[in-house]
Amino acid sequence: DHEAAEWQAQHKAIQDGYINLLAPLFLPKEPTNPDILDYFCALLRVGGMEDGGWDPYGESRVVLQELHELMQIDLPEKFPDHEKTVIRLGLIFYSHIVEMDAPYEVICNLLRRQLDLGYSLRPFFDFLSAKEQKQYRYSGIYPTKKIAIIKKLGLQAGYDFAPMFDEFYDNGLRNAIAHSSFVITEEEL
Q: Do the beta carbons of residue 174 and residue 98 sit within 8 Å?
């Protein structure tokens, strides 16, 4: 199908652009002080005293894989509007991706490494106001704040991540999905 091939080509181009933008963070820098421990802590998301099986990233990967698989199957007649069901599953998929802590934390800690700020169990905490730090203890921070911090650190390290995040992150959509404040009609979401 021509339309599917075109969509896959566009998807591949976007994916390659993200990989090219992020790749330098994952390459060894030439530090004046060896930072290999910070590098591996950032990649492994070392989190302190945790037992095996406590990493929510593993569960997130399974959820995303299962949602993706569900979006590919022919649904039984119990789902009369296949297209809308796939859209709903896609919205849950999107919401889960933008809410995951792990990708933001890895990117932030790799940027901290680039800027010689060192690894942190709470990589965003140092960049929050006193009021935000108090709130962080109880509720963490929202993706918009994480993205703002990553953009700022990225610019300090010589990377412009704004186009990447601006392309895929939509706070209005995130809020609509998270708070079940959306409707799918024949014409629009």
A: yes
